[in-house]
Amino acid sequence: MAHSIFRTFLVSVAATTLAANAAACTATTSRTVGKDDVSDQIAEKMTDPQGNKPEEVSCPGDLEAKVGAQLNCKMKVKGITYDINVTVTSVEGKDVKFDMVKTRDKDEVARAISDQLLQQVGQRPDSVTCPENLKGLEGTTIRCELVDGSKKYGITVTVTDPQDISFRFRVDDQPEE
Predict the structure, then answer these.
(1) Which of 124, 142, 163, 172 has the most CB atoms at less than 10 Å from its CB?
(2) Do 136 and 120 belong together in one domain?
(3) Which regions of the chain are under pLDDT 70?
(4) Is 109 part of any domain?
């Protein structure tokens, strides 16, 4: 694959029609916020891009009452499943505050990058992997990895539009050592 193309490659990728809605919530607890309480907050505050409320929300467990603790839940709206990341922002006594944001699956982000590279240079890289889901907040950045033959390149992925979790990416100029 022509590595010189990667050096200046910058592309904006449109995501699926997810709207990124960050919302601050508060729950009262001692050590955790129950998964039902988190699900109720998602059901109350989150919507799809058309403003429809979820019919179903599920979380895999309770949310630890510790700043930075995260929980990845799912909501279903009109038959479409959305990933929701819940992150604790503060804990004061028994009050736990947390944000909720839609995310784009890490494998979907990697596929979108690979697809765009195929369109732009006529060939897919050997692989593209991302370490985590992309949070739908403008300016959010993650680092992914592209493998082309024996060379590995870092990829910076940045959210440009939180409404549909659109992003741009840039492949590093030089392979990783």
Answers:
(1) 142
(2) yes
(3) 1-30
(4) yes
Extract long-range pairs of 122-128: CB within 8 Å, 24+ residues apart: 123/1, 125/1, 128/155
- Tokens read off for 101: 């944001």
Structure tokens belonging to residue 21: 């809605």
Q: Report the predicted TM-score, pTM, of the whole model to 2 decimal places.
A: 0.71
pLDDT tens per residue across span 95-140: 999 999 999 889 999 999 999 999 999 999 999 999 999 998 899 9
Could you give the CA distance from residue 71 to residue 118 in angstroms, rounded to a whole number? 34
Query: Which range of residues forms the domain containing residue 83?
Result: 23-103
Last residue of a domain, one of 68, 83, 103: 103
**């929701």: which residue's tokens?**
84
- Tokens at 43, concatenated: 């059901």
In the chain, the largest separation of any two C-alpha atoms, in whole Å, equals: 57
Same domain, yes or no: 97 and 125: no
- Residue for token digits 């819940």? 86
- For residues 87 and 121, membership in a common domain is answered with no
